[in-house]
Amino acid sequence: xxxxxxxxxxxxxxxxxxxxxxxxxxxxxxxxxxxxxxxxxxxxxxxxxxxxxxxxxxxxxxxxxxxxxxxxxxxxxxxxxxxxxxxxxxxxxxxxxxxxxxxxxxxxxxxxxx
Amino acid sequence: xxxxxxxxxxxxxxxxxxxxxxxxxxxxxxxxxxxxxxxxxxxxxxxxxxxxxxxxxxxxxxxxxxxxxxxxxxxxxxxxxxxxxxxxxxxxxxxxxxxxxxxxxxxxxxxxxxxxxxxxxxxxxxxxxxxxxxxxxxxxxxxxxxxxxxxxxx
Lengths: 114, 154
What we know:
Chain A contains 4 helices and 6 strands; from the N terminus they run ββαββαβαβα. Chain A is α/β, with parallel strands linked by helices.
């Protein structure tokens, strides 16, 4: 798994590629936490377009971040979902808590309007 | 003539073996010519079962995980067995959102995902002895669908 983090207009964009499972969940959580504490971005946008695999470990990480972002009044957006990942996110109830967009550009534009 | 085959795999409960385990089962299932979505479903379910063994069954030790998979006609069965601590309250463990280890940010969705991505899920567990998760997926072979759409098979 590879993680790329960058800031854009008060959003923290988390771009993940490869496979996200329990083995890498801790690494992803730590990477986001360190960036989050440093910059206090408002929203977190997960870009999963290049993610080839995700199981419930990924849901755990997103859910954990949701709780923190919500405390500060921010939102979570997820982009580039495959059918399989969408099913997992739907089953876990996350679909009701996060915003789903086609791509990061749309997420950045839409989140600015909410 | 029936289509039959099987494979066995033994791995230590290292978390970096999760990807290996699901890749092996996916490669084995490829013989049934599954759709991409079916392969994803199988990989996800196997990943959940193996992760449970690593995180819960062998909480403080590196035990052994056995994977046994077999093909019968167009069905794929996968058994994931550990010799760990067992599940004390299976009914609770199978409930969505329940996790015995919230400190790890687990979503509690493992069994729910296995149940919705596979056609059958059975769990056998004995406290202090271990757990076996048996899952079956009935595959809609692409090859057969293709033949059907060409009218060669009724």
